[in-house]
Amino acid sequence: MKMREDYTCPLELVHDMIKGKWKPIILWRLRLGKTSLSKLEQDIQGITQKMLLQHLKELMEYGFVEKQTYSGYPLHVEYYLSDPMGKEIIEALRIMQHIGITYLEKNGKAEELLKKHIIPD
Amino acid sequence: MKMREDYTCPLELVHDMIKGKWKPIILWRLRLGKTSLSKLEQDIQGITQKMLLQHLKELMEYGFVEKQTYSGYPLHVEYYLSDPMGKEIIEALRIMQHIGITYLEKNGKAEELLKKHIIPD
DNA sequence: CTGGATCCCGAATGATACTG
DNA sequence: CAGTATCATTCGGGATCCAG
């Protein structure tokens, strides 16, 4: 994810930070608490390990996500939202979630999409 | 802006709706009230009329923005945020704006960017 | 061996320049 | 302004590497 040199507004910077295809869902899933890479891979349907790692890495660089590595066996790493940046972005995503649900209900496509929606609100 | 067929979550749908390079800033500017195309073009530095029109069109298709055409002379068109969808997304953008400002302050790059930031909070 | 992480490359998409 | 061409980025597959 390449960042621009200039932004007219701080908002644009943040928008770029979360603009990847999988970033919103990853954050949304992380809102439920710490998890491992493999658990994330299971919960987010369609994502590959590679994409997951790439997006997690970027989210860590910007400061939304942090990770903790436990040495020992079996090897274990946990990812979680940072405080306050990670927690704050969730509030923005929550609004988007609300808009999305309303939009789908209005257009009668709610069931179709809400059924798949495994990550709870 | 091509939309996907499936989304795992309504949030992703909305994220895609506003994912273009200029969409957040256009919405942010519209928050200040109705305006014409040319006024938008002036206020959003670096945008071309073509990009502006393309993104406005998409924002109208999704329902964030509406336009009103005044017949008469000179010909006049005004764009504005829809209610409630347009107004709601502003709340999400406001959070991003806040995160962005905090981030820039922490990294000592606040002045540099905040100076350019012509659109008021 | 297992789970976590990186590299290389082609295909799809987005942004912008160019043109009528 | 719309249509097309061009250029930069992003996505995703697959191989591969690294560390307990």
Protein model, in words:
The structure is a homodimer of 121-residue chains. Chain A has 121 residues and is mainly alpha-helical. Chain A has one domain (10-115): Winged helix-like DNA-binding domain superfamily/Winged helix DNA-binding domain (Arc Repressor Mutant, subunit A), CATH 1.10.10.10. In chain A, 55% of the residues lie in helices and 10% in strands. The first copy, chain A, is built from 6 helices and 2 strands. Chain A has a two-stranded antiparallel ribbon. In chain A, strand 1 (65-70) and strand 2 (76-81) form a beta hairpin. The first copy, chain A, starts with 9 loop residues before the first helix and ends in a 5-residue tail after the last helix. The interface between A and B is large, with 42 and 42 residues. Chain A binds a DNA duplex (20 and 20 nucleotides) through residues 1-2, 20-21, 36-38, 48-51, 53-54, 57, 69, 71-77.
